[in-house]
Amino acid sequence: MDNIDSIKNLLNQIGVIRKKNAEIVEASGGRFNEFQACVRHRENPNSDFIAALLNPQGSHGLKHKFLECFIETLANFDPQKINCERATVNTEHDIGDGRIDILITDQNKAIIIENKIKSGDGEEQLVKYDRYAESIYKKGNYQILYLTLDGRDASEDSAGDVDYVPISYTTVIIGWLEKCLPFTFAVRHNNVRNAIIQYINYLKILTNQDMDTKHKEEIVDMIVDNPSFFKNAEYIQGIWNDCKKCFGKKIGDIIKDTIEKFGLERDPLYNDIGYDDFNAGVGTYALFHKNNWCFHLIISYTPGFETNSELVIGLSRDAVLEKGREDVDATISKLHELFIHLTCYNSGNWIVNTNPLKPIWSKTQDEISKYVFEEIKNIDEVLKNNGF
Q: What pLDDT, on the 0 to 100 scale, is given for residue 51?
């Protein structure tokens, strides 16, 4: 009991410091960020910005310096494998049975980057990239990088036996961008420098590193100076993944119970899409439908802290395309008329609520359950009443 009380005391004191930091950031306007406002967690705009910096022919005007710095930042990667001066950088590169998020190539060699911020892995996604790269560049002449917020591994369904390197926004991308800043100190590169600084700050928000250094040091000193706090902090770190899994499982259970009430089922064509990842406590989404629907109901979950964690509910237009409807544009237009609180998301493939439930970590189970029920009920009634 004493140990539990000590842990509660530690968490309470950290909470006091975090609240003080949040109040200072809020008062100073430090939470405003153009990337946070416009990009949010969408993978394509993040890939586009990273690729724009990596591109030696990019409008940043610094030629191959950013690409060279990126390759030097990577561990266990030979910078001589890519000729940075003649390299080309493309996004959404079509390989026939998939699209590579970022492809860096000098014709003979390549770096393939799969960017995952909140979406789940596709079936054999990295396997397909590996198969394509081997046919074009041959083994030993390419490297596949799996980029996530925290550097987690790809799922076995996606990676199989593929040789790839997991990298993170938390260390690799932020570290690379910080190393790039000295290249932009000339006055003529002010716009580039400001954009990189804004993006670094955005990523620190996204990866929960935006606490002021002074307040971090205050927490560190508090823990280090108190032997019982030090031991309890280590204990909390050891069970943190279990906490995320437990929270994700509770959300998964709420979703499962609610969709059953409305007669929704998982689409058998999409059984491999990340529903089970709710239990793993990682960002994921799942698709559901009714037999008479030409849409998927989509539920997207992003774990995290503060403004980063959210639950989003809406519709996916993928099913409209797959069922061969000829009036896709008219159908989507009609949906926007019916759901005035919904907006396009994920490159226009999802039509989701512009007011998601967030930060989800601060919500009770009853609040989450009510949100899920009300959102699905609203969508179900509108579709039913308008002949969809």
A: 94
162 with 223, same domain: the answer is no
Let me know whether 46 and 170 are in one domain: yes
Cα–Cα dist 64/85, whole Å: 6
CA-based diameter of the chain, in Å?
68
**Alpha-helix runs per DSSP H in 262-357:** 277-280, 318-322, 328-338
Q: Contact 54/66 with Cβ under 8 angstroms?
A: yes
- The most confident of 57-66, 73-82, 262-271, 303-312, by mean pLDDT: 57-66
Number of domains making up the chain = 3
Q: Is residue 323 part of a domain?
A: yes
**Domain membership flag for residue 47:** yes
- Distance (Å) of CA 188 to CA 61, 68, 93, 196: 9, 21, 32, 14
Residue 336 scores a pLDDT above 80:
no
- 356, 306 contact by CB (below 8 A): no
Contact 218, 17 (CB under 8 A): yes
Candidates 109, 111, 108; CA nearest to 100 is 111
Residue 211 lies in a domain: no
pLDDT at position 144: 94
Model confidence at 282, pLDDT cuts 50, 70, 90, reads low
Contact 365, 250 (CB under 8 A): yes
- Tens digit of each residue's pLDDT (9 = 90 or more) over 99-114: 999 999 998 899 999 9
> Could you give the strand order of the β-sheet that contains 110-116, starting from the edge strand earlier in sequence?
88-94, 99-105, 110-116, 142-148, 164-168
- Is 283's pLDDT higher than 70? no
As a whole number of angstroms, the distance between CA 253 and CA 274 comes to: 14
- Tokens (6 digits) for 361: 């970590």
- The residue with tokens 């508090």 is 222
Which range of residues forms the domain containing residue 220? 2-26+216-239
pTM: 0.59
Mean pLDDT across the stretch 187-193? 85
Q: Are 328 and 266 found together in one domain?
A: yes
CA distance 101 to 46: 10
